[in-house]
Amino acid sequence: MDFLNDLAFDLLAGLAYGAVGLVLLALGYVAIDLVTPGKLSELIYRDRCNNAAYVVSSGLIAIATIVTTAIITSHDDLDEGLASAGGFGLLGIILLVVSFLVVDRFTPGELGEIVTHEEHHAAVIVTVANHLAVGAIVAAAIS
């Protein structure tokens, strides 16, 4: 019977971590949408804007890296693990937005306009690298 109880607890914990991760990914998407002009759903799905898709994808990968690290380092304490995943995930989202705005200050023109333009632009590569770097830094800070 212990096996079934442990399995049920682990499944519920996985569901809880999954829910936290999905909420954070949705919040990250919304945050990136707020700092870029236009609606990302239209830019990506209707207009097929690769630049916007790259920026959003890198932000989501960064958030997933942060949440995954928080889960892995939670040491089997569900309450602390969920709080850690949620807290560090929110921190990551905030830092992604701040880093986007900082890079925007150093970029000639409007970075938001550049990353939503349909023509490929090298600044998008810098933005993608910036997102991935922030995710790695916050993930490293957790451990």
Describe the structure.
- The protein is mostly helical.
- The chain has helices at residues 2-35, 40-46, 50-72, 78-106, 111-115, 122-142.
- α1 (2-35) runs antiparallel to α3, α1 (2-35) packs parallel to α4 (78-106) and α4 packs antiparallel against α6.
- The mean pLDDT is 90.
Q: Sketch the major β-sheet.
A: none
Low-confidence stretches: none
Q: Could you tell me the mean pLDDT?
A: 90
N/C terminus separation:
34 Å
Series of secondary-structure elements, N-terminal to C-terminal: HHHHHH
**Class from secondary-structure proportions:** mainly alpha
Task: Using the alpha-carbon principal axes, give the shape.
Answer: elongated
Instruction: Please state the CA-atom Rg, rounded to the nearest Å.
Output: 17 Å
Count of all domains: 1
Number of strands: 0
> Which range best describes the helical content: under 10%, 10-25%, 25-40%, 40-55%, 55-70% or over 70%?
over 70%
Number of helices: 6
Task: List its traits.
83% helix; 143 residues; 0% strand; mainly alpha
Short structural description:
With 143 residues, this protein is an all-alpha fold.
Itemize the secondary structure elements and their pairings.
Layout (H helix, E strand, L loop, with lengths): L1 H34 L4 H7 L3 H23 L5 H29 L4 H5 L6 H21 L1
Helix pairs in contact: 1-3, 1-4, 3-4, 3-6, 4-6
